[in-house]
Amino acid sequence: MIKTIMCIRRKPGLNRKDFEHHWKNVHAPLITRLREELRILRYVQSNANEETVSEVLRQQRNGPTKFDGIGQAWFASLNDLVEVANDPASRAALEALREDELNFIDLENSPMFVVEEETVFDAVQL
């Protein structure tokens, strides 16, 4: 299974409450509506925890400034992900998604990765 992971920082000047509202109530329905064109099988949003524990962990690891959330999208294969760039309907959906992301995400400071997921263990399935 192929997955994209985006470590998201909110757009400068956008407060956390407005960021979370847009991500959940505007972006999530948009990506849900476009999921077939984008060939996405699963999509998960994870909002960053504001608790002190997160900051302590970041400091212990000399980590970068914190992210506001992580977005993950699963695809059946790398070929499916590549085909999104080749198919006109998929490209249009991708452009609509990007236009929305410009409203609430600092894209320049929100790295994205393509990974092949390999589950080592899953206590939920045990």
From TrEMBL:
GO terms for molecular function: oxidoreductase activity. InterPro entries: Dimeric_a/b-barrel, EthD_dom. It holds the Pfam family EthD. Residues 11-107 form the EthD domain. NCBIfam families: EthD family reductase (TIGR02118). This is EthD family reductase. It comes from Hyphococcus luteus. The lineage of its organism: Bacteria, Pseudomonadati, Pseudomonadota, Alphaproteobacteria, Parvularculales.
